[in-house]
Design goal:
This protein is an alpha/beta fold and about 210 residues long. The chain is built from 8 helices and 5 strands; from the N terminus they run βαβααβααβααβα. It has helices spanning about 20-30, 45-55, 65-90, 100-110, 115-125, 140-150, 160-180, 190-209, and strands spanning about 5-10, 35-40, 95-100, 135-140, 185. It is globular, with a radius of gyration of 16 Å. The protein starts with 6 loop residues before the first strand and ends with a helix. The relative contact order is 0.20. Bound molecules: thymidine-5'-phosphate.
């Protein structure tokens, strides 16, 4: 089944926020209802982008500069847009992205303190004007997120210090307040089911209109 028009939804949040779980649940819900829907993760989602992901998250890459890091996120993203996202939207389908440009603004811009205007210039070159219709920010306090990640082995970004993570979370909230019409901000301490219902309610409203 086709959605009434192409629909692009991104999911954002700090590591351990619970956004990936919600992303997958929405994907399966839409798929079960017969929609043509795609789910990709960032960085990743194409053969080349997954290779870039490995470089980005490799804990051994301690010497990576912040600019290299930012450019690699956009390289992965550019490939994903060209190869998968753009064509799917052109066919009028639904695309769900587990992270998009807001991640780079929050992590590299606010977290690493890179210049936001420069990041936006790179975004223009890498992806042009492609952007989400709706961004779901699962906002989760650091402590809750860290408790959830206790069991897993941390990658290069997840192993960053608490100040970096706090700046990232605050950056997300600033972005959401600046672009309130695009963001749905949810409390990541809610239950998985409660979050799912809030997301479905917004997405169903968009699909019905
Ligand atoms: P993931 O764990 O959600 O798959 O994301 C991988 C890591 O990369 C996560 O720690 C967030 C980080 N990241 C950035 O720092 N900038 C970006 O632009 C993206 C997409 C992810």
């Amino acid at each position: 089944m086709r959605s009434p028009r192409p629909l692009f939804i991104s999911f954002e949040g700090i590591d351990g926020s619970g956004k990936s779980t919600q992303c997958k649940m929405l994907y399966h819900d839409l798929l079960d209802r017969g929609y043509a829907v795609h789910l990709f993760r960032e960085p990743g989602g194409t053969r080349i982008s997954e290779k870039i992901r490995d470089i980005l998250l490799d804990k051994d890459n301690v010497e990576m500069s912040h600019i290299t890091e930012m450019l690699l996120y956009f390289s992965s993203r550019s490939q994903l847009i060209t190869e998968k996202v753009g064509p799917a939207l052109d066919r009028g389908e639904i695309v769900l992205l587990d992270r998009f440009v807001d991640s780079t603004i929050a992590y590299q811009g606010y977290g690493r303190d890179l210049d936001l205007t420069s990041i936006l210039k790179v975004a223009e070159v890498a992806i042009g004007s492609v952007g989400p219709d709706l961004t779901i920010l699962v906002d989760t306090p650091l402590k809750t997120a860290e408790d959830r990640m206790d069991q897993r082995e941390l990658d290069r970004l997840e192993a960053e210090n608490v100040e970096f993570k706090q700046r990232t979370r605050d950056g997300y909230l600033k972005l959401a307040s600046e672009e309130a019409h695009r963001f749905l901000v949810l409390d990541g301490r809610d239950t998985i089911e409660a979050l799912k219902q809030q997301i479905l309610s917004r997405v169903n409203h968009i699909l019905a209109n």
